[in-house]
From TrEMBL:
Occurrences of domain DUF218 (ranges): 82-238
Name of the featured protein: DUF218 domain-containing protein
Residues annotated as transmembrane: 14-33, 40-58
GO terms classed as biological process: Gram-negative-bacterium-type cell wall biogenesis; peptidoglycan metabolic process
Gene3D superfamilies assigned: HUPs (3.40.50.620)
Record keyword GTP-binding present: no
Short name of any one Pfam family annotated for the protein: DUF218
Tagged with keyword Membrane: yes
Length: 248
């Protein structure tokens, strides 16, 4: 299981935009004597970088993902659980937990706190391991940040061993069974997350956040757009991986 987990991570990173574009350029250099092929590869790399760095590219990639579920502001009645999926954080000396969270993690946690306020006596569930790079698990860092944002620590449940969305769903199944809950994650990630959680027999209600599609000049080229495109591509790869697991 551990080997397949890391194989998935390595393969998915290898076909992200920047590594893939660099690979095209390296191959074009190696076959430079075959001028037509080399020019074709360089052209592909150039236009791929151009498209993925543009707002047009971002919106094209994320439109289907982010339109699947609307913002959720419906009051929560009855038993109330809010599951916030993990992202990333850094061990920054002297920083608060909130300051240590990545932008994606902070966006998810902020929405999770907002969802808590839509119900009565809700419990917040946070998850994520340390990734072997940080001293504190992501679940603990998210819990500490939630406390800094005013959440009672007695209302927080942590899954510090969950490494990905599939494992988060498994831990939640053990914790909640068939109890309904609000599922908070990035809008691009929500379709895949909903598929994973419902496949486990759980009953999530989507509460997306961290939308990256923007109304901007279509031709605008930025590094932020390249990062946004990478996040969208990561989701499509994740959905493909999930489909392959179901048919194998």
């Amino acid at each position: 299981m551990d080997i397949m987990f890391w194989v998935k991570k390595v393969v998915s990173q290898g076909i992200m935009p920047i590594p893939f574009i660099l690979l095209l350029l390296v191959i074009s250099f190696l076959v430079w004597r075959r001028r037509s092929m080399a020019k074709y590869l360089v052209s592909c790399a150039f236009f791929l970088l151009l498209f993925l760095s543009s707002q047009l590219g971002v919106n094209t990639l994320v439109r289907q993902l982010e339109s699947a579920y609307p913002i959720n502001s419906t009051p929560i009645t009855g038993a109330c659980f809010v599951m916030v999926l993990g992202s990333a954080h850094s061990d920054i000396q002297g920083a608060t937990a909130v300051q240590s969270l990545s932008a994606v993690a902070l966006a998810r946690l902020s929405e999770g706190v907002r969802q808590l306020n839509l119900g009565q006596e809700c419990k917040l569930i946070v998850s994520g391991w340390g990734g072997e790079l940080t001293q504190v698990s992501h679940a603990e860092m998210m819990a500490n940040a939630a406390v800094e944002l005013g959440v009672d620590k007695r209302r927080i449940i942590q899954f510090p061993l969950a490494r990905d969305t599939i494992e988060e769903a498994q831990y939640l199944q053990w914790e909640l069974g068939e109890e309904p809950f609000r599922l908070v994650t990035s809008a691009t990630h929500m379709p895949r997350a909903m598929a994973i959680f419902t496949a486990k027999g759980l009953h999530p209600e989507a509460a997306p956040t961290d939308f990256i599609g923007r109304d901007d000049f279509w031709w605008r080229l930025t590094a932020d757009n390249l990062v946004a495109s990478q996040r969208a591509i990561h989701e499509y790869i994740g959905r493909l991986w999930l489909w392959l697991k179901t048919v194998s």
